[in-house]
Amino acid sequence: MLFTGISAAADAAPSKVLLFPFTIHAEKDLSFLNNGIQSMLAARLTRQGAVEVTRYNQPVADEAEALRIGAAQGATHVLTGTLTVFGNSVSTDAAMIDVQGGQAQVRFSESGAESGDVIRHVDQLARQINQDVFAVAPKAVAASPAVQTAKPQPATVAAATAVPAKTATPSPEPTEGPQIWKSNLLNTSLRGLTAGDINGDGAVELAAIDTGAVYVYRRTAEDLTQLSIYKADRGDELIGVDAADLNANGKAELYVTALAGDGRLASFVLEWDGSLLRNMARDLNWYFRVIDDPAGRRVLIGQQRGSLATASAASELEDQNRLFRGDVVELTWRGDQLQPDAKLALPQGMNVFSFTRAEALNDGRQVLVGFDDNNHLVVIGDTGRREYKSPESFGGSLNYLEYPSGSQFSANDRYYLPLRVHVADLDGDGVNDIVVARNKDQTRSLLSRYRNFGSGQLVCLEWAKIALKEKWASESVADFVADTALADFDGDGRPEAAFAVSSSGGLLEKAQSYIVTYKP
């Protein structure tokens, strides 16, 4: 039998591998490589029901310390390693050690003449461990668990069931130029997208929302595999989703911003419980957003909703601001409760969706980058002064919040939520770029209540001393970009962009979407 090793393991308790960060010796800081190394190893070693891989967050001084921690954590094996980079030369050394016997079952040592050889080394290491320790040939990714829904669903619930892949064949990876992957079509109109290790398998999954459900997908070479669907309560409307592992258990929670039918916030938090999404907290009066702090740590920020029972005599801008109440704060878990923590110092008028904070100008300062009410990109310096405003508009969303207008022509006006702004080094040149969507509004913003997008694309901008200039842009799509995310999908230590493309939702349009990943 080909899988004798796995079958035997499945009859007993599964092997539990505790994976430690590699110690990296290099002339410059290459600590970012650890995430890619750990993701690749976890994905290649995990075997459903037979091998479980847990990532440990702190490096260890030696193998003895790794064994002590492994024993305390109930691991059967510990995996440690060292990466040495000098110029273009790279050397990878690793040990897979049996905790009970204290002996290394695999000692690995390889060198290469190019820094890219690290990926080859990690693949070879995983293959050797699978063959010598678990007696199986490794697969490229972990086995897919059965697809389940969060609660029993009627047949009509599977609105985002994938259309057969022949309708949307993914683009082949070119030898030069951007690497583009396109999913199969989804029979719904997606309005939110995020990415993270949602099920704890060491690989990156995608989570998306439409108005009434949360979907978790695994990206394969050919298409999307749906892992789970969570149906929101009847009458609730989902307007945003973010992923972050704030409770540090190796699985990213999903923070879903939702509106109840009566207009109040009814946000909730989901987490993978081994086979499906479980609700950790519900009916929360928080708008959610996940951003990176200056140390690269994923941080959940939130803001509460104001009272909009009736129209006020105030200006339209003040009425918009009543959608948001109080300060933007960092949210942290205290026991099983999400509690407000540090307050963020923001210019007046900015809300939780308006900005990200990063070293966007590559001058050592943390600045705010976001959209104004007309979708122009603005940069706010560390003194609170606006340092830049783009002459053209970017972003463009169909997600909106309504507030009483006080007008004889319309009972409600709309505040359209800004799209995300990302700051990251996608092309590995050591310089941070700003990555945003750019959707073209066919109404030319002449109608304040309505938008109709005819095309969209992903755009990368870089700071050129006095202004932002376009570095590259994806090909335009015929619909619009509903949301964007950054994640390291291929495990090379650098993030790629992902974006959800949706139909604009016109009366004669069929609701359809697809997801694209883009590596420049």
Plain-language structure description:
The chain is mostly beta strands. Helices cover 10% and strands 42% of the residues. It contains five helices and 33 strands. The chain has helices at 4-11, 33-45, 63-72, 117-132, 316-321, and strands at 15-19, 23-25, 51-55, 77-86, 89-98, 104-112, 148-149, 179-182, 192-196, 205-209, 213-219, 224-231, 237-244, 253-259, 267-272, 277-284, 287-292, 298-305, 324-334, 337-343, 355-358, 367-371, 376-380, 386-393, 400-404, 412-416, 422-424, 433-441, 453-463, 468-473, 480-487, 496-502, 513-519. The strands form eight sheets. Strands 1, 2, 3, 4, 5 and 6 form a six-stranded mixed sheet that branches. Strands 7-12-11-10-9 form a five-stranded mixed sheet, with no helix packed on it. Strands 8-33-32-31 form a four-stranded antiparallel sheet, with no helix packed on it. α2 (33-45) packs parallel to α4 (117-132). It is globular, with a radius of gyration of 24 Å. It starts with a helix and ends with a strand.
